[in-house]
Each structure stands twice: as C-alpha cells, then as structure tokens.
Design a protein that fits this description.
The complex is a heterodimer of chains A (261) and B (327).
Chain A lengths: L3 E10 L2 E11 L4 E5 L6 H8 L7 E6 L2 E2 L5 H7 L1 E3 L12 H6 L10 H6 L2 H20 L15 H13 L5 E5 L7 H16 L3 E5 L3 H7 L2 E6 L2 E6 L1 H6 L1 H8 L12
Helix pairs in contact in A: 5-6
Chain B lengths: L1 H9 L2 H18 L2 H26 L7 H19 L3 H20 L7 H20 L19 E2 L2 E2 L3 H23 L2 H11 L1 H6 L4 H27 L9 H14 L4 H17 L1 H5 L1 H15 L8 H16 L1
Antiparallel strand pairs in B: 1-2
Classes of the chains: A alpha/beta (261), B mainly alpha (327).
Amino acid sequence: MSLLQVSSLTKSFGGLMAVHNVDIAIEPGQIMGMIGPNGAGKTTVFNLVTGIYKPDSGKVEFGGRSLVGLRPHAIAAAGIARTFQTIRLFPNLTVLENVMSGRDCRSKAGVAGALFRTRAQRTEEQAIRAQAEKHLRFMNLWPSRNELARNLPYGDQRRVEIARALATDPKLLVLDEPAAGLNEHESADLMALIRQIRDTGITVFLIEHDMKVVMGVSDRVMVLDNGEKIAEGTPTEVQANARVIEAYLGRDDGEEMWRRD
Amino acid sequence: MHDLMARIQRIPYLYWALAALAVALLCPLVLDNYLLAVLWQAGIYVLLALGLTIIVGYAGLFQLGQAAFYAIGAYTVAILNIYLDVPIILGMPVAIVLAGVLGYLVSRPILHLRGDYLAIVTIAFGEIVRMLLVNNVFGITGGANGLSDIDNLSIFGFTFNTIIENYYLVLFFVVITIFGVRRLEDSRLGRAWTYVREDELAAEAMGVNTVHVKAIAFVLGSALAGLAGVLYASRISVISPELGRFLESVIIFCIVVLGGTGSIPGVFLGTFGMVVLPELFRVVRDWRDGLVGLAMVLMMIFRPAGLWPSRRVAEELSADEQEASTA
C-alpha cells in the first residue's frame, strides 16, 4: 500500500484553479520528485498535503488515514514533516533550539511538568536535546549549534530546516526546493544527503527546479503544469515525455522565451 | 545609560534575585506602614504584570483586558466570602480557576486570528465585565459601590491583618510566581511560546499545537490576575468595579512594555515607574498619563525593547531593524 495516497485533489483560489484533480501515490522508501513550471501548483500541493490549505475536494490519505481537515501540527504528528521554499527558521533562536522544535510533537510535558520538574519531565528534556543533537550531527551542523539561525550562511540554514523536519521523526519528508540558492558543490552534497535520509527509512517527496538534482536523486518524477499532473514515471521516462518537453520549452508562443524556468 | 544597563544586565540573574529578595525581606524593618502599603500595592501589580508577561512577552499575544481578570478574582472571592461565608483561603483557588477558565473562554474562539483582534476582544471583554459589575449583575456585585466587609485571608488560625503581614503574603506569592514563570520559560511550553512568537506558521508546521499553547498562556496569565485580585480584596476588604476599568489594563500593559517585554526584572522596573513613583510623588501622579505617553515615545526611539529587555526580545527587535534598513 502507498504511504501517501492523494486522489482527485483540487484547490482553487477565487477564480484561479491552482490544483486540479491531481493523483499522487508514493510508496514507502521512495524518493518522489515533483517538477513543473513556475505557478504550476507544486507548492500548493505541498500546502494541501501538510494541512496549510484545505482542499476543495479530493482525498489525502497517509498510511491509510485521511489527513483532510487536520491542522498542520496534527499532520506533523502523524508523520509528515516539511521544509519551506523560502526558509522559515526561527531566526533569533539558536540552531539547536530550532531543531528542538521538531521534538515538540513527540513530547508530552505540560504546565505541571514544567513547574514541578518531575522526573518524567527532566528525562524528556534530556531526550529532546539528545535527539536534536543527533540530527545536528547528521546534518553536519554541530559546530554551529549555538549560533543564532539568522547568522548562518544560506546553505546551512537550508540544512537546519531539514534537521528540524527530521527531528519530528517523520515517515515522509516533504522538501520544497531544497537546492534553491545552493551552488553546484552544495547541491551535490544535498543529493547525497537526501539519499542518506531515504536509507534511514524515510520516504522523500521533493519539489525541485534544479534538474540535475531532481533527476539524479528521484526514483520517480511527477510533472505538474497549470495545476494538473501531465506525466509521471522514472526520470528517464519523464525526460522523454512529449507533454513535459512542451510544458517546459513552451508551445510556439514566442513569449515563453522569457520564462526563466 | 546604555553602557550602564548593559553592564548591569551581565550580572548573573541569581545574584540579582537573591539581593532583591534580601532587600524585600528586610523592608519592613526600615519602612513605615505607608511605604509598606505602597510596596504591597506594587506587589499586586507585579503579579498582574507577571501574568501579562506570559501572554504578551512569551506567547506574543495582545491582552488589553488584564484588569478584568483582576476584578473577576477579587469579586469571586468577595462574593463567596460575603454571601456564602466561604473563607478566603477556600475562595482563592475558586477565584483563580474561574479567572483562568474565563481567560480560556474569551481567547479560545479568536486565538487563530491575528494579534490585533485579540487586543480588541480583550478590551471589549474588560468593558463588559466592568459594566456587569456596575449594573449589579444577579444583584450580587453591589453595583457602582461594590462590595465591602470582605474577610482577611487566614490560614491555620493565623489571619493576615496588618500591612506587614500582608506585605509578606504578597511577597511570598511574587517569589513563587517568579520561580514558576522562570520554570515555564525554560521548558517545552516556554520554547513552544517562543516558536509561536518567532514564526507561527513554521511552529505549527513543525508539530507545535499553536492554538493550544497560546490558550495555555492566556489561561495562566488570567489566573495570575485572578490571584492578584484575591490578595487585593482580602486586604482592602472593599472592592468596586473601578478595579476592572480599562485604564488599569493599560497601566499593567505599560508596566510590561516599558519594563521590557518578556523580562522579569523589567516587570519590577515598570511597576516602579508606573505605580510606585506616582504614589510617592504627587507631581508624578498628577502628570502620570502625560509622563507615560512621553516615556513610551522616548522608549520607542531609544530603547524599543524596554528598560530591561529580555535578551531574546532585544534580538528580535534589532533583527527587525536590520531587515528594515536593508529592505
């Protein structure tokens, strides 16, 4: 059974049909890439899956359980963690504190625990820190753990976001353009890292504009254009697909020449 | 001034706390009853402001109706005491819980909205409470005259009558509140509040139940105001709807903001400026509203994070400034 099963997902904003009848099936342990021209609706799909938007219609099932109507924090607790296209770290907190936020949904202590410092609360606090530190090491961020997130170089901030997402112990990791703004060397490291993450048993769903990254790392690739899925297959299949080429290189409009992506 | 404050802030927190506690404990030896009563009153405001610090400082929510919860605490304990002969010590937990529950009911439906809505709703709630009290709701609030002949707090046969006794009583609650607030700040919940304040959407997406943690902040802050109301009513023994007026809420809000949002020493500095100085100096009292306005303007220009800011809030503000200047 698929880990993530999305069927006939539809969302419109006012008159704009952002996502129309999209089906997605991601198998456990897979790396699924999603590509498409700007404005194709990729991030909207992510926002629908992670509960930031509510779908107009369609189903989102995760491990057999429907996620529609759940708030984002509940979806994170269910096992889907994400990063953002424009980095959304907690800028004035340290890197360690940022990553610790991912442990919140795996922790229990409340007001009483905080006030009375029960044994359970203290054990949990240590575990939160230990888990966060583990993910910092994994993402090669250990040396900068006590820096404020906003003072980190861009590439490191991206890695902090991934570490924070991993700290939630996700079954599915959703990455929104993880290679954006990275240089070639950093992108290559990122690809290795995404494979490593998959090898720990986490399924990965990513949006990426860098074709080298997305074709290099994905097991399957789906293509979105104007809110509709126009193709899906292995990277080789997708690259040879006539509709995909058309979506990317444009029909004979002339104007399409100006598109950057 | 700036250097001096920076140097003062580097002194370890614990030393400050112990020195302040020692001074506070010794105050009754040297101060007369009038000055002790001023400090007692200041202690009540410190409790109110510590509650508001949780809401405004930690969770980053607007709350302009703290005085309403103060009044609710005072009236609850008074009504139980006067009509049902419930001793203050038993009415106290009821009043605290009721203030907390009302805090939850007021905030919960609107917590997912942006901060400004919360400010408006809490102002409105404060006025509703005050008007209900003035209009003698259910015939038990005594209308505009309020209620009188409220017992003093007594526990195990000891009654807190004199100002010295009440001074120590309030000091006791201030100390344990600070202890509790600091523990909350340094906990899963405290971090969650910080995440919400920094980036609510990111916090929610990372699995923080943002509505829940904001509601907890509101409940705790309101409950503390309820406690302050109980302590007030049990010493003064006469209460009126004036307790819950909007100006009181503004004063409490100003204590938090002027002192330094999210900072416990800031609460003391703010209380000193907003409550102690006006009480001691008539000039300050007569001109308080104008002086507060002036202080606010000067603060926003020279020290936007408050007189004694929390490290983190100061960083947030300077980051905003950097962003504004690079944009």
